[in-house]
Write a structure and sequence with these properties.
alpha+beta, 5-stranded antiparallel beta sheet, Zinc finger protein-domain-containing protein, 6-stranded mixed beta sheet, Phosphorylase Kinase, domain 1
C-alpha cells in the first residue's frame, strides 16, 4: 500500500556555459576569498584550541571536528567578504553534487544553489517541500536545542524567471553536461567546509603518500564535508586510488581511532531522526548527516520568511513556483556543526495516515532506515562501540519521540517503539538468512 508521498528521479546531459573575460577580476577575488578563508579559519582554530607540540594529529582532528567547536574570524576577513558582496559581478563556483542537482556557491555570500539536472525538476521541488517541513519541525521551541542543524531555506528560482537568469546566466561557467541552464534552482544556506587543518590531517592520514601533494593542491578538496558513518567500518585500510575530500566518508573505526565523542553523535542523530519522523512527518529516506562549518550570519532578505510561507502552503502551490530572492550575509565566526541535508527522495504523511495505516507506515520507516547510507548504528552488533552506539541512538530516539508525541498526538505514542522493534526484527531476519550485519549497500 502506497501511503506516503515522494518526488521523482531521472538523469540527463548537456553542454557547458562560458563566462566572459570581463569577469576575470571577480574570479580572481573569489579565489582570494577561498584561500583567505582557509588561512584565517586554520590560524584561529589553532589559537583557540591552544594546541601544544605534543598534540597528536588524531587529537587535533577530533577537537576540530567536534560539533560546537568555534573559531573567530578577523575583522579583515569580514571586510573582505563584505567587499565581495558589493562587487557588481562574482561568478558562481561549483562546490558539490547530489542525485538531483549540482551545488554552486557565490563566494562572499551565505547561500548555495542546488540546480536541477534535466528530468530531476520534480525531485528538486520535492526537496523544497520536504526541507521546509523539516526546517519548521527543528524551529519548534521544544526542538531548537538539537545538536543537528538543517540549512535555512531561502528561495526557489524557476527556469522561467527571465529577469534572474538574464542577470546571472553568464556567471556560471564549466557547467556539467547533466544540467541545462536556465534550470530549476533551490536556494539555501551555504554549509561551509571543514577547516584547513582538519583537511590536511585527513589527507596525511588516509591518502596514499604519492598522491598527497596533488590532492592538497586540488581546489575541489577545499569543499570538504564529512559523512558520519556510525553503522559501518572500512572494508579496507588501503588508501583509495581516487581519494577526495568532497563527500568524505568517516567510518566508525576511524572515529574510534581519533577518540571522537561518538556517543554524543549517536544520541544526536537518534534525536534528530525522531524529530524528522514524528514532528515533521517525514520518513528520512536517503538523507545525509554531515560535518561542516556554519557562519554566524545575518540574512537581510529571506523570501520564504518574508512571504510568511509555511510548508503546507508551499506544498499546495503549483510545482516550480518562482520564489527568487536576493540574500546578503555578514559573516562573524564559524562553528563546526552536524548537518542534515538532501531531502529529494523523502516521503511525507499526515496524522490520518499514521492512525489508519500504522503497519504500512512503520514498514516504510524501517525500509528507509536500512536503505540510507550507514549513518545509523545497527541493532544486534555486540562489538565495541557498535553495541553502545545502538543503545544510545535508540534510547535518544524513543525519548525525543515520546516528548514530541506527548504534545502533538498521544494516539501515536506506541509507534516510535514499533519502529525500533521493526529495525531489530529486520536485523534478526537478515542474520537468519545469512546476510550478516550492515547489509545496506553504501553509495559513494
Amino acid at each position: 500500500m502506497e501511503v506516503l508521498r515522494r518526488g521523482a528521479q531521472h538523469s540527463s546531459e548537456d553542454s557547458p556555459v562560458s563566462m566572459s573575460s570581463s569577469l576575470r577580476v571577480a574570479v580572481y577575488l573569489s579565489n582570494q576569498l577561498s584561500a583567505l578563508l582557509d588561512q584565517e579559519h586554520n590560524d584561529t582554530i589553532i589559537r583557540e584550541l591552544e594546541l601544544q607540540e605534543c598534540s597528536s594529529p588524531d587529537t587535533i582532528l577530533a577537537k576540530v571536528l567536534t560539533p560546537q567547536s568555534i573559531s573567530s574570524t578577523s575583522s579583515s576577513f569580514a571586510q573582505f567578504q563584505n567587499s565581495q558582496q558589493s562587487l557588481p559581478v562574482v561568478e558562481y563556483r561549483a562546490i558539490g553534487f547530489g542525485q538531483c542537482g549540482l551545488i554552486f556557491e557565490k563566494p562572499g555570500h551565505g547561500f548555495a544553489l542546488k540546480i536541477a539536472k534535466r528530468s530531476y525538476e520534480d525531485a528538486l521541488w520535492n526537496d523544497l517541500t520536504v526541507h521546509l517541513r523539516i526546517q519548521e519541525a527543528f524551529d519548534q521551541p521544544q526542538n531548537k536545542d538539537s545538536e543537528c542543524r538543517v540549512p535555512r531555506l531561502f528561495s526557489y528560482i524557476s527556469k522561467d524567471s527571465n529577469v534572474w537568469w538574464e542577470q546571472n546566466l553568464s556567471l556560471f561557467r564549466n557547467v556539467h553536461a547533466s544540467i541545462s541552464l536556465p534550470a530549476m534552482t533551490l536556494v539555501s544556506q551555504r554549509i561551509l567546509p571543514l577547516p584547513k587543518i582538519a583537511r590536511e590531517i585527513l589527507i596525511n592520514k588516509y591518502c596514499a603518500a604519492a598522491s598527497r601533494a596533488f590532492v592538497a593542491a586540488n581546489p575541489t578538496n577545499r569543499d570538504c564535508l564529512a559523512r558520519i558513518y556510525l553503522g559501518s567500518r572500512r572494508a579496507t585500510k588501503i588508501p583509495p586510488p581516487n581519494f577526495t575530500l568532497r563527500n568524505f566518508n568517516i567510518y566508525v573505526d576511524q572515529l574510534v581511532e581519533m577518540k571522537f565523542p561518538i556517543e554524543k553523535l549517536a544520541a544526536s542523530i537518534g534525536e534528530a531522526l525522531a524529530i524528522i519522523h514524528w514532528s515533521a512527518n517525514v520518513d528520512a529516506y536517503d538523507i545525509e548527516f554531515v560535518l561542516g562549518s556554519e557562519a554566524d550570519s545575518k540574512y537581510s532578505h529571506d523570501v520564504l520568511a518574508d512571504l510568511n510561507l509555511t510548508s503546507r502552503q508551499v506544498a499546495a502551490m503549483p510545482p516550480h513556483t518562482d520564489l527568487e530572492s536576493i540574500i546578503s550575509v555578514n559573516f562573524l565566526r564559524r562553528t563546526t556543526r552536524l548537518w542534515i541535508i538532501d531531502f529529494n527522495l523523502c516521503h511525507s504523511w499526515d496524522e490520518d495516515t499514521a492512525l489508519n495505516h500504522p503497519e504500512a507506515l512503520i514498514e516504510q520507516l524501517v525500509e528507509s532506515f536500512f536503505e540510507n547510507d550507514p549513518y545509523y548504528p545497527l541493532p544486534l552488533v555486540n562489538t565495541y562501540p557498535e553495541k553502545e552506539l545502538w543503545e544510545l541512538f535508540s534510547s535518544s530516539y524513543i525519548t525525543k519521540a515520546s516528548k514530541v508525541l506527548h504534545e502533538k498526538d498521544r494516539r501515536l505514542a506506541c509507534l516510535p517503539q514499533q519502529f525500533i522493534n521493526g529495525c531489530i526484527q529486520r536485523e534478526i531476519e537478515s542474520l537468519q538468512k545469512g546476510l550478516g550485519h550492515g547489509h545496506r549497500e553504501t553509495r559513494q
